[in-house]
Amino acid sequence: METSQILLVSKERSALDLPWTCGESRGWQVDTVGSGWEALERVHSGPGPDLILLDLMQGDSDGLHSLCWLRRVRPDLPVIVLAGSDENHKLEAIRLGAQDYLIRPLQPQQLETAIRRSLFHHMESAESEIVADEIEQIGDDMFFVAASPTMRKLRAQAELLAQVSAPVLISGENGSGKELAARLIHKLSVRSGFRFLKINCATLPGDVLETELFGVVNGNGRAKASKLELCQRGTLFLDEITEMPMSLQAKLLHVLRDGHFVRLGGESRIEMDVRILAATQVNIEQAIADRKLREDLYYRLSAFTVHVPALRQRKEEIPLLLGHFMNQLARRYSLPARIFSAAALDACQRHSWPGNLRELEKFVKRYLVMGDGEPGLALDPDGDMAFWNSYLPQAAEKSLRTVESDEPQPGISGLKSLVQSVKGEAERNAIATALEQAGWNRKSAARLLKVSYRTLLYKIEQYHMSPPTSHLSGHGNGNRGFRHVLHKG
């Protein structure tokens, strides 16, 4: 990736220190000029910077004029204004097109996050064609991402395998994208105009799995069609093939060899024109040794094999996948997409992702709701993101399952309700903790929470909170009028 060019416009040489520190740690190149007019010359004279930091000192009347001209010359160029706390100044800067307005004194994390956010928006449109090539839609809400050498190689393999109709065995860790690879092969093949069906062999009892696979004729003579019939001329994907009972594996082997089958309880032979794709997450040699997979079936299925690499083996894709999942989930739940903080991005790069794409998508879903700035959410110092399993309170997890269930629930209107419940739960828990620490002295609790006493009283009433019995007899100043608050209205 090319180094991002950042231009700092400031009359104070010392103002370079913080941008330089951020740039050095992130590989950004930071240059400086002394005035907005010099910045205009720099923009005119060549390709120009990718982002401008406009440092406005107290009494600098030319700064906003410079912003106005910079936006006229390069409307696509993001400009971040660094200035003092002046609300009118801020409103005018935003009106003139500043991407962001940061108030001094700045913290390194604050500046770095603003730069990342601005560069992301700036590069998004320029890279849209590249991203379109790297992200390929293969179904409703299903995409194949090939932004690393290993995944581009897998994409090329899928294109070659799509030209034949032989079985394919797909291996890879749980959640790595084996089904996506199978769907990609189907989409690129001549069978793409017909059905793609999936059977998860690990989730069905043997008798049910046999009925699903081969169909059945009931005692009254009525026949239930099999998956093999329903996707004639299409593709059948058998996930977790090693979980199929050995007796059923033997029957599947005969079907693959003979090209026909008979329904359970039936007599009529049914010709089969279905491509079989199978997948497993286990070690094949061990599965054969443990009699989890018939060796002869393995040889029948593995004329062609594909391995889907784990996410930790293609970490260069993580930023793209994070952005992709964020945009996809934000659209699904009608919420504004969040920008990942620098700390979250770093932790994501260091995390081993044992759950692969499934774990990543779940993390993004939680980040969409909570971000990383809520109480109790902190990155693990080792970068393993041990925090993320507690990203949402239990009540929020329950709400999330309700939102995602097939049955519409009363009182729930998409993820917006979840966002409110999650934030409310986090706020209520923070208040309860502070009150407990302060022995239900509300003035002390307000100081702990760094909110006004009046605000705390309002929140206590809003959440219908009451102290344990042991605190009801308190007579300190912080408890005066407490019963009035509890019973008001």
Please give a structural write-up.
It is a single chain. By secondary structure, the protein is α/β, with parallel strands linked by helices. It contains 21 helices and 16 strands. Strand 10 and strand 11 form a beta hairpin. Helix 19 packs across helix 20. The longest helix is centred in the C-terminal third of the chain and has 23 residues. The protein is elongated.
Which labels suit this protein?
489 residues, Rossmann fold, Helicase, Ruva Protein, domain 3, 5-stranded parallel sheet, 21 helices, 16 strands, 14% strand
The CATH superfamily title of the largest domain: P-loop containing nucleotide triphosphate hydrolases
Query: What's the pLDDT, averaged over the residues?
Result: 77
Number of domains: 4
Helix content percent band: 40-55%
Strand order of the largest sheet: 2-1-3-4-5
- Number of H- or I-type helical stretches: 21
Shape: elongated
Report the portion of residues in β strands. Answer: 5-15%
Instruction: Please identify, by name, the CATH architecture of the largest domain.
Output: 3-Layer(aba) Sandwich
Record field, number of beta strands? 16
The secondary structure category is: alpha/beta
Sheet bearing the most strands, described? 5 strands, parallel
* Rg for CA atoms: 30 Å
CATH topology annotation of the largest domain: Rossmann fold
Counting copies of identical and different chains, the oligomeric state is single chain
CATH first level of the largest domain: Alpha Beta
Low-confidence stretches: 124-132, 374-422, 473-489
Ends: how far apart? 61 Å
